[in-house]
Design goal:
The chain is of the alpha/beta class and 243 residues long. It has two domains: 132 residues, Rossmann fold, CATH 3.40.50; 92 residues, P-loop containing nucleotide triphosphate hydrolases (Rossmann fold), CATH 3.40.50.300. The strands form three sheets. Strands 2-1-3-4-5 form a five-stranded parallel β-sheet, sandwiched between helices. Helix 4 links the parallel strand 4 and strand 5. Helix 2 runs parallel beside helix 3. The mean pLDDT is 84.
Length: 243
């Protein structure tokens, strides 16, 4: 594609109709590739992806139905609009069954073309966005803070991805220096609580009494020097995860 412009292939064997349609679409800001026959259109479809195909139904040698079928075969997510001056119920039904987005009868209005083209391109954009989101959900997210590609490291990453979305308590075991806090941080970053704070708390640095005071807080007068109420880390509303 050229820049951010959406590409439209126009297939029309009547010179005046092709030029008029090309002019209408170019004024709307689309990149338009016009061609006068179906065989050339199929060649272009093999070489380039298009966001939309607009094709006349009745053409010599290779007609619009053949262009429609080949377009859907090569690019299933590209919408196709059929245009014809010989509209019949049967041809319209067949075109829609074969995957056409819309069927326009000649003579058509400029407003009708603009509306149908805009809707067809919007449908394609939403479809591609949906496909992309599904792919992102199905692909395992990388955890840059945990480096390694061995089976044990991959197993740890998979476990993190499984438990991160859940509101459950997690016990992380391991010898000193093995990365327990990195795992805790990764769980936090991949959870719905990631916008809130992560607090690392080293229990080994506190006595039992001080640890309880830091985690759970105390009431005024609970002990000498407790001159006011104090909230513990576990009570802070903005703390999403405490390790």
């Amino acid at each position: 594609m050229t820049g951010d412009k959406q590409r439209i292939l126009v297939v029309e064997d009547e010179d005046i109709s092709r030029k008029n349609l090309t002019h209408i679409l170019q004024k709307e800001g689309y990149e338009v590739i016009p061609t006068h026959n179906g065989a050339k259109a199929i060649g272009l479809l093999k070489d380039h992806p298009f966001d939309l195909v607009i094709t006349d139904l009745k053409m010599h040698t290779v007609d619009g139905m053949q262009v429609l079928k080949k377009s859907k075969e090569l690019h299933p997510n590209t919408e196709v609009i059929m245009i014809t001056g010989f509209a019949t119920v049967d041809s319209a039904v067949k075109a829609m069954k074969d995957g056409a987005y819309y069927y326009i009868s000649k003579p058509y209005s400029i407003d009708e073309v603009r509306k149908v083209v805009k809707e067809a391109l919007l449908k394609r954009s939403l479809l591609l966005e949906n496909i992309k989101l599904k792919q992102m959900l199905n692909e395992p997210q990388d955890i840059p803070t945990i480096v390694g590609k061995s089976e044990p490291v991959r197993a740890v990453k998979e476990t993190i991805q499984q438990i991160a979305p859940s509101d459950i308590n997690v016990l992380i075991l391991g010898e000193s220096g093995t990365g327990k806090e990195l795992v805790a941080q990764a769980i936090h970053q991949m959870s719905h609580r990631s916008k809130n704070s992560f607090v690392g708390f080293n229990c080994g640095s506190f006595t039992e009494e001080l640890m309880g005071n830091e985690l759970f807080g105390h009431e005024k007068g609970a002990f000498t020097g407790a001159v006011k109420n104090k909230s513990g880390l576990l009570e802070w509303q903005m703390v999403a995860l405490c390790f």
